[in-house]
TrEMBL record:
GO terms for cellular component: plasma membrane. It is found in: Cell inner membrane. The chain crosses the membrane at residues 5-25, 45-65. Coiled coil: none annotated. It comes from Methylotuvimicrobium buryatense. Residues 32-138 form the HemY N-terminal domain. Its main location: membrane. This is Heme biosynthesis protein HemY. Keywords: Cell inner membrane, Cell membrane, Membrane, Porphyrin biosynthesis, Repeat, TPR repeat, Transmembrane, Transmembrane helix. GO terms for biological process: heme metabolic process; porphyrin-containing compound biosynthetic process. Pfam families: HemY_N (PF07219), TPR_8 (PF13181).
Length: 410
């Protein structure tokens, strides 16, 4: 429409100019005379005809070159228009593919995304979304192919492609494959928050607490977790490292890990118990007896008290004396009395052990106190009383199990 208006406007101007020239020359009796000679050729005409002819010729030549220029540009315009149409279709296909993926139409989404990916302004999104759709329908080979193409056709998108691949490996519980991918990404960008977050998840699944400990500084710097969450993670990591060392039966490794634990984590309730329990489990309880006693004296903890009673001391009498020292502050503590009964029994002081255990049961009946007292009575030869204690322990244990089941089901 624009070109038509331009053409008609130019034609109108040319006619108007020609008419103006004709009117101007018409005022004279002699319209003028023009003679043009070229070799043996000559052109003879009036000045009026020459003027009008020049105007018309100029218009025709001008329109000819305009048309010629338009025809030369036509292939490019056709190509550009075709690309624009394909681009618009690819954008529509992307939206449709995302909608189908959200609705669970995986195969349909995959087909439409791949069909229009090559003409899209964001082919990476097409291939990554298609990869997710392929995995969702179990087409693992197709998934890997789309990820490969995405990496090839989107230079500089290694992190985006790798993260998508790692997330899909994790969703399939392919932790080793996810770890390989994440390690490569970590080498490219050690401070990338999303990479660190997925590394943390992967190491946790693999139980590699030492690896998590190494990336905690980077996680803290990149603000992957809040400060409080970082401290909780550190506590979890050192707990895991202590348990791993205990499982390996290496008390020197347990001690090495404990020395590396920051003081603020050592003060978290439950953390010291993991260390002391690990040392006792590997048969090194005597090495931490004094340290455990100091910890109980400084910060009274019944869990640590029970662990103290489990220590196979090199000097049971000294161990008993240490525990009896706490009676002044906690004379009616059932747990302390039970521990005293246990240590007294180990020291062969059966009468004292019986008194402590009976008082503990009177204050707070417990399965372990009944069992210890039953074992003590058996050694004394009082089988009837021992059987009664075993029965009480069994009844008490059954009641605890019933309450736990009720809490779970209720």
């Amino acid at each position: 429409m624009k070109n038509i208006i331009f053409f008609l406007g130019s034609l109108f101007i040319a006619i108007a100019v020609a008419f103006g020239i004709h009117s101007w020359f018409s005022r004279y009796d002699d319209p003028g005379y023009v003679l043009i000679g070229i070799g043996h050729w000559s052109l003879e005409t009036s000045l009026l005809v020459l003027g009008v002819t020049l105007v018309i010729a100029f218009f025709l030549f001008y329109m000819f070159f305009r048309l010629l220029g338009w025809m030369l540009r036509l292939p490019g315009k056709v190509k550009s228009h075709g690309q624009s149409v394909k681009y618009n279709r690819s954008q529509e296909a992307l939206i449709a593919g995302l909608v189908d993926s959200a609705e669970g139409n995986w195969e349909k989404a995959e087909k439409i995304l791949i069909k229009h990916a090559s003409h899209s302004g964001a082919p990476l999104i097409h291939y990554l979304t298609a990869a997710r759709a392929a995995q969702s329908r179990g087409a693992i080979e197709k998934r890997d192919e789309y990820l490969r193409i995405a990496a090839e056709r989107s230079p500089g998108a290694d992190i985006a492609v790798g993260l998508t691949q790692a997330e899909m490996h994790l969703s399939e519980q392919q932790f080793d494959q996810a770890l390989d991918t994440l390690k490569k990404l970590h080498s490219i960008n050690p401070g990338h928050a999303s990479v660190l977050k997925l590394l943390h998840q992967t190491y946790r699944q693999l139980g590699d607490w030492d690896a998590i400990r190494k990336i905690i500084p980077s996680m803290n710097k990149s603000k992957v977790l809040m400060e409080a969450e970082i401290k909780l993670l550190e506590a979890e990591v050192f707990s895991g490292l202590l348990r791993q060392a205990a499982e390996n039966g290496d008390y020197t490794k347990i001690q090495e890990v404990w020395q590396e634990v920051p003081d603020y984590i050592k003060r978290i309730p439950g953390i010291p118990a993991i260390y002391f329990a690990g040392m006792i489990d590997v048969g090194a309880g005597a090495k931490i007896e004094d340290e455990l006693a100091r910890s109980i004296s400084e910060d009274w903890d019944e869990t640590l008290l029970v662990l103290f009673g489990s220590v196979q001391s090199n000097d049971p009498q000294r161990q008993l004396k240490t525990a009896e020292g706490w009676l002044k502050a906690y004379p009616d503590n059932a747990v302390l009395l039970r521990v005293l009964g246990k240590i007294s029994k180990r020291c062969k002081e059966t009468d004292k052990a019986g008194q402590y255990l009976e008082k503990s049961i009177a204050l707070e009946p417990s399965v372990s106190a009944y069992q210890l007292l039953a074992d003590l009575l058996t050694e004394k030869g009082d089988k009837n009383s021992a059987l009664e204690c075993y029965k009480c322990a069994l009844d008490l244990a059954s009641g605890e199990v019933a309450r736990q089941v009720e809490n779970i089901t209720g």
